[in-house]
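User: Fold this; tokens only.

Assistant: Input:
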Amino acid sequence: MWRKIAASRAYSGLLVTDTQEPDTLEPGTGEPDTEAVEAFVAQWRAELGDEGSISASHVQDRLLDLWGTLPESSTRSEVERWLTETIERNLYQVPDINRRLESVLASS
């Protein structure tokens, strides 16, 4: 069973609830659809464009979307740690985001 994760700045915690299996898995395999993850990362990078920094709340929103594309794995755990970090931060530098996204791509 897959879990849906939601973050709350007001309570500085994460809420995990049961949900349906993500649509980004290869049918019948339980493996991530690498093309879907790559497309997500490419779209996010395009949105970042030539920005220097992005608010932590924006990063959190996009990470929740990314988290939903990943099956239980070390990559998903890495995104969960990053999500937890967004609660404590106000700003992310775009090069840092790109470095972390590259790590996600390498792992998927």
